[in-house]
Every structure is written in structure tokens, then in C-alpha cells.
Amino acid sequence: MSQPVPAETPSARSDCEESRHPAGGSATPESPTGGAKHVELSRIHDFASKLCSPQVLEQLKAYVRWQAAMRGGAAADRPESAPAARVPDFAPVSINLDITTSCNYACDHCVDMKILNTGIRHEHETLLESLRRMSEKGLRSVIVIGGGEPTVYPKFSDAIRFMKSLGLQVAVVTNGSGMRKIAEVADCLDEQDWVRLSLDSGSDEVFQAMHKPKKRITLDEICEGVAAVKELSPRFKVGYSFLITWKGATINDTKIVANIHEIVQGAERAKRYGFDYISFKPFLTRAERNHAEIVDLRDTDRHFDDVISTIRARVDEAKKLDDERFKVYESTNLKVLENRSYRNYTQQPATCHMQFFRQVLSPLGTYNCPVYRNQPHGRIGDKDAYASEERSLETRSSLARLIDTFDASRECSEVTCLYNHVNWWIEDLIRSPEKLDAIAAVDREDPDYFL
Ligand code: SF4
Fold it and tell me: Where are the beta strands (DSSP E) in 237-300?
């Protein structure tokens, strides 16, 4: 299924609880985002705070010290010659797990269309072994997401239960066709876990036109599955994701179906069927230059004002449905697009530090960022990159090289990256590692390890 990612990353649920940066500011001192028109990051996007949680802080400190040593060190410490053993021995804190590339829809707006239904798959036991090893090395959360539709993975329930038995936080992003599979695992999901359905429409007519399910299923039938899941367990949140599209938006050389007129209808439907929230995000496309996922709208576009003012009016109307039980969220990248501050989020430091903390594990390989899933310049290793001690060692070398050579200031110069703040914050710590001593663990009542 199609994935909204770091231009509002796949991990980017759009809960919008405000929070503060653990270092006391809302942006790093040297970040180009500091001082500009500022949209406060929602709590789930306060990645710096998450990296300061007691269970993760050691990983952050080891990474910062390693980077600082490398920058100030001799040639032998350079990633190309440094032994992998010098790279901090941690798995990423959070992964996007593309559990399958199979999909039972043919969405017109799919950013992953070229990798779908290739027949390339995970070996189930190897996948479980990778997860087990990663959890021993600091993995805390898994977002089971795209490339394909997670619930069509034959051992979906087994994989989810295994991850929960490892104590991982688990989220599932689904097209909704497999709510029966979600119901099967509802009993093992906790308060911090979540399920989000990518529905992107208010009517069945637009739903069918956008998603083109290969086997007949209606939007009503999908939504009816939510009540059944809630009855089994009300513990975790179930969200309705609405990727807003407009006339003229294109991907894969194809004009996509517009749904901008169904924003309010989508929110009414989500509330009526018992979803916990609806989140609105702008449509993403692929950049021509490097296939990065980017928002398909710029303030230089002729129709920018019309599209933005229409979205604003309709999202404001939808927000009238917001109450204690049901929330209406708009994504950070929608807000920064509207106030034209999105370019601040495209000015990345040369080094993307989040590659160390959050990666994508797919049947096609292991990648540095959801924006570059299946892109050769974001590749860290194969699908079994963490499946054995030997492979993990190779992966550490490969990751060290990528951290050194992947120039985020160039590669991601069109991406509205929500990791921009945390990347600049870590950059500042590497330049002034003595600041690490002043960072205390942030113990949250409801720890959230999704990155
Ligand atoms: S800066 Fe890093 S996290 Fe942001 S889009 Fe680039 S690779 Fe992804």
C-alpha cells in the first residue's frame, strides 16, 4: 500500500499534542529552522525527547561520542578504514518493517508502485531472528507498514505476536482490507501500540477510484471492521488517515484522483464508525532527481493559494467534529506548507544522524530512511542485515560508510523532513560533546519509541 513518509514519515502519526524540546528549546541553536515562522512539533514528532528516554539515552550518547571521535580522529578512525567493531554496537531504536511487497490494491497515488508484487519476500524465520537480535541491541519499536499491505503477509499474526513477546511497541499501517487479521492480534496490542487505516476518502466512489481494490470491498465494509476490533480491545488507538489530493497532483506520470472535496465527509465517516482520530496530510510524490518522497506542492505553484485555502477551510470545518473521544489532526507538513515555512525543514545538516536510530527493513533490503526505501543510495544492506552476528558486523561497517558519505544537505534538499530538528540537535551535540553531560534522561509516563 502507499506510504506517507518523512515528508511526514510513515512513523508520523498525526497526533498533535504539543511538547517541548528536552534541551529546553524548540529548535537547536544552529538549526536553520531556529527563529523562522515556527510550527511547534507535535509530541510524537519530538524525536529528541524520545532519544532522551532512559532506555535509549545510552544509544544516543554512544553515537555522539563515536561521531565526535571520528571527526576529530586520525585516518584510522575514518569509516572507510575503521573496523566495524568501533561502530557503536546497537540496532536502530525504531524500524519501519515492510513485511511484504504484496498488495491487494492498485492505488493510483502509490509511491511504492514500482516495488509491489515482485515476489521477493522475507524468510519468516530469518525475519523473526533479525527482530530478536535487534531487540537485544536496542530496538524498541516497529511500524509494520508499506511496500505492500501488511495484512496479506501469510504469517502476519505470528509476526505481530512475536514482536509483542519481545516487548516491542508495534504499529500497523494498513489499507483496511484485512481488519479480520487486525482483530486476530487485538488482544496482544497495548496502549502505546496503534493501527492506522489509509482510507483517503469520504465516499465509496472516491475510495474505489483511488484505491482500486483487486477484490471487491467497500469503504463501509472496511469501516465496519473497526467496531469489531474495538469490541475485542479498546486499549490501542485506531486512526483514519486521509492523504489530501487535488486536481493536477501527479505521480508515476499519472494524474491522481482528487479527494480534497471529501475532507469533511471523511471526518464525519471516521467519527461515525468509531475511529479514535482522523489525520490529514498533503499528497507526496517522488522527486525526479533522486526519487525522494516529497510534497507535491510548492508555494511557487500557480494553484498553491487555491489548494491551500480550500484545504484550510475544509479542515477547519472537519475540526468542529473534534471532541473528547474523537480527534481531528493535521500533519506538521501540512501546517508548514500552509505557513510557507516548509523550506526550513528542507535545510538538513550534511550528515543525517537519524540513519543510526531509525531504518527500514524490507524484503528488498535494509535502508537508511523511509524516504529512500528501495533506492540504491539509501541502501545499508540486505533483508538479513541483522540476522546473524556476522551480518550485523557487516551492517555496522556499511552504515558507518553511509553516515559518512550520504549528503543529506543535497539528497534531502527537497524533503520536508520532520527529523530536521533532531538531526540539527545531534549535530550540535557532536560539535560540542561536552553538552552530553548535561542531558538527563526524560522519563515519560507513556514512553513512545516510534521514530
Ligand atoms: S535528512 Fe535523514 S531523515 Fe530526513 S529525509 Fe533525509 S535521510 Fe531521511
Answer: 237-244, 250-251, 254-255, 277-282, 284-286, 293-295
